[in-house]
Design brief:
The chain has 149 residues and is an alpha/beta fold. 38% of the residues lie in helices and 19% in strands. It is built from six helices and five strands.
């Protein structure tokens, strides 16, 4: 099953650990990942571009005018759907990750539970369906369901 992952960032420079994240993303090299920068005022955009430069399965969408989290996630979904043939799309909103937990720890769980996370019981994308919102699933919520987080 071909699954894409969208990761939303907004002013996340201080929490990002690029070297660790690059290593973790490289373990998921068969999964297309879209890093969405939602008008960060810090250096988040530069950091996610650097991650993209080290990981061939990563693309970056830079939103220049701040949007709601859902709108920003949908922008990443539209990009991934136009660039790849995908059956499922999961997203991670970094704004919802507790600071003491961190994205690196969350990614460890994604790697450990990738088989269960991306099983066919998750929402399947329907061709020509323009309602992207109904086709996404929260990776954080799914990890909670799996009792990983």
């Amino acid at each position: 099953m071909k699954t894409g992952v969208i990761i939303l960032f907004h002013n996340y420079e201080n929490e990002l650990e690029p070297k660790v994240l690059i290593e973790q993303i490289q373990q998921l090299d068969t999964i297309p990942i879209c890093l969405v920068n939602n008008e960060s005022k810090d250096n988040t955009y530069d950091i996610v571009k650097d991650i993209r430069d080290h990981c061939p399965n990563v693309s970056v969408v830079n939103i220049k005018k701040f949007k709601s989290d859902l709108s920003a996630i949908r922008a990443g979904a539209r990009y991934l759907l136009s660039a790849r043939k995908l059956k499922t799309l999961g997203y991670i909103n970094t704004n919802l990750i507790p600071v003491d937990f961190g994205l690196a720890h969350l990614f460890e769980d994604v790697i450990s539970y990738r088989e269960q996370l991306f099983k066919s019981r998750l929402p399947l994308l329907k061709p020509n369906n323009t309602n992207i919102r109904n086709q996404l699933f929260s990776i954080i919520d799914e990890l909670h369901r799996l009792e990983a987080v």
